[in-house]
């Protein structure tokens, strides 16, 4: 798997290898959205990745979709993240902040004034929020107005600037997994009749405007975007996946972005379509078959050899193996991820996975 150890460039970000740590929500932030001090240890332990993508980080208060997730919209949150970026850089790593607005995936209990979550259309997800009060049904969101759209774009820009202030090497816009950008893209969640809905050209407009605004603010070569074509997570549905992503990726070629990050969903044909259309760096969380979950280094190396990816994004393998490159070179063995400690808790299942040397 030597192809995984060649350097690659993603915009202005130099990756020492092609092993990327996936964004993974760990639900260990404070109620105020500040990552804990232990997060610096967690991320720095994994600094041998060519690139670390942080857990999804909300751009504003109403962008939060889950309990104990971090933000990048207050000075205190910036200061907490600066401890992380300093630790990663001191360990020789590169790290970008994944910026998210969860849209309709939220609940009034998360927001001051218990306001409704917002979305492109007033369509509930059919999913639930895990909360200390129990499992709570996502309500029907309030359909966003033009003013809401403009304010949200401005909040993406502000969060991106705060990310650079916090020391990140760049940002990744979360356009996947059924969150707000994806909700605008998908015809199952976007039933608008204005310029932000209807045709594919209308449905991609919000995402393209967010990309343009953030690229203008911090530099396109420090901006990536995550896409998950065909995924049904969070109640999302697309009836025109091939056309949608063909048009979207073509529009994104107008910007010299650092990368596109694709989360594959047993649809290698769509991945190839994106690869053929995108001239820049492509990061791939490879799932070519139903048996390929979770993705592993061998599956990723095959994707690089086939030319459908420039770098591979792994989740559970990085979570459980902080020294993953060393383990790959040694042919294993690999620690097994403890699913019971994925979300919430303390250092257990977070910073206590042993290295080979240990």
TrEMBL record:
Domain NADH:flavin oxidoreductase/NADH oxidase N-terminal: 3-332
Lineage of the organism: Bacteria, Bacillati, Actinomycetota, Actinomycetes, Mycobacteriales
Protein name: Alkene reductase
Top-rank taxon, per record: Bacteria
PANTHER family: NADH OXIDOREDUCTASE-RELATED, NADPH DEHYDROGENASE 2-RELATED
A UniProt-annotated Pfam family: Oxidored_FMN
